[in-house]
């Protein structure tokens, strides 16, 4: 999931602690592979380990960034074929 901030980053940061707690909960369920803010900070990337786009959208709809309307996400499917994530366990 690739996010785009809809408001200035200062407004996004007001919700950031809740967003990071949300991601931590997903990590505990082995649903997040990695995540981080883009540079420059215009959005972020959340790499989810889920079976399909529908599940990814269902999960990300609960992100405090989405619920607070400070960011929106675009789903981008990806299958790692090389590198460190090539053999990452599939959901």
Write the layout of secondary structure elements.
Elements: E1 2-5, H1 9-13, H2 16-28, E2 32-37, E3 44-48, H3 53-60, H4 64-67, E4 71-74
Antiparallel strand pairs: 1-4, 2-3
Describe what you observe in this structure:
The chain is of the alpha+beta class and about 90 residues long. It has one domain (about 1-75): Alpha-Beta Plaits, CATH 3.30.70. The chain is built from four helices and four strands. It has helices spanning about 10-15, 15-30, 55-60, 65, and strands spanning about 1-5, 30-35, 45-50, 70-75. The strands form two sheets. The protein has a two-stranded antiparallel ribbon with strand order 1-4. A two-stranded antiparallel ribbon has the order 2-3. The longest helix has 13 residues, at about 15-30. InterPro entries: Dimeric_a/b-barrel, YCII. Belongs to the YciI family. This is YCII-related domain-containing protein.
What descriptive keywords fit this protein?
4 strands, alpha+beta, 21% strand, 33% helix, 91 residues, two-stranded antiparallel ribbon, Alpha-Beta Plaits, globular, single chain, 4 helices, two-stranded antiparallel sheet
